[in-house]
Amino acid sequence: MDEMYLKIKRVLDFIMSLILLIIVSPLLIIVAILIKLDSKV
């Protein structure tokens, strides 16, 4: 029971981190582009 819970938790943690990465990465790319454009001026 306890071992099964740990496996499920590990999988859920992995899925949640993937979802967060997918959500956050476009924002980070936009910020990086804005900084690049701003620093050239």
Could you give the topology of this structure?
Elements: H1 2-40
Concise synopsis of the structure shown:
The chain has one helix at 2-40. With 41 residues, the protein is mostly helical.
3D structure, described in words:
Helices cover 95% and strands 0% of the residues. The chain contains one helix and no strands. The chain has one helix spanning 2-40. The termini are far apart.
List its salient traits.
41 residues; mainly alpha; single chain
End-to-end CA span: 60 Å
| Count of helix runs | 1
* Percent helix: over 70%
Q: Approximately what portion of the residues adopt beta-strand conformation?
A: under 5%
Largest sheet: none
Tell me how many strands there are: 0
Spans of at least 5 consecutive residues whose pLDDT stays below 50 are none
Overall spatial form: rod-shaped
The ordered string of helix (H) and strand (E) elements is H
